[in-house]
Design goal:
63% helix, 7 helices, mainly alpha, Arc Repressor Mutant, subunit A, 148 residues
């Protein structure tokens, strides 16, 4: 028996990622003959950008699979193959998983202002009671100018 590969092989990585995107679990894939050790797999993922980019895409694909499973669960519910409470538990779990695997598409965070860019938080606390009317007016004007 040949030992586990330790030299990076993008073809092997791609084959593993395809299997993962089709729903196979990584631990089961890595048990197969000719597969790298789990530690090697994760070392490659951290070391090689082409692999880490592909891996991100695979995780997003898995998020899509969870949404497909939700649709299947709904169909099973409609056909009375499962009861509503069981369907609800399955759907909630799959929604949660989809939100973790593909947060940009299925996550709970809604960003309607910044287009994904980090926005400054121009929050300044002052005690207006200690300011004269002139000082307060100057502060308000400068704050408005900063935010335009």
């Amino acid at each position: 028996m040949v030992g586990r590969p330790s030299e990076y092989d993008f073809g092997l990585v791609k084959a593993i990622c395809i299997r993962m995107s089709e729903g196979e679990k990584l631990p089961e894939i890595l048990k197969g003959e000719g597969m790298p050790a789990r530690s090697t797999f994760f070392d490659w993922k951290r070391t090689y950008k082409d692999f880490s980019d592909l891996y991100v895409n695979v995780q997003q694909d898995k998020g899509e699979l969870f949404i497909e499973e939700i649709d299947e669960t709904i169909e099973d519910l409609k056909k009375s193959k499962i009861d509503p409470s069981t369907a609800n538990v399955i759907i909630q779990a799959l929604k949660w998983k989809a939100s973790k695997f593909y947060p940009k598409m299925y996550g709970d965070k809604v960003d309607i202002m910044s287009g994904g860019e980090k926005m400054p938080t121009p929050i300044t606390f002052i005690s207006a009671s200690n300011l004269s009317n002139e000082q307060l007016e100057k502060f308000v004007k400068s704050t408005i100018q900063k935010n335009e």
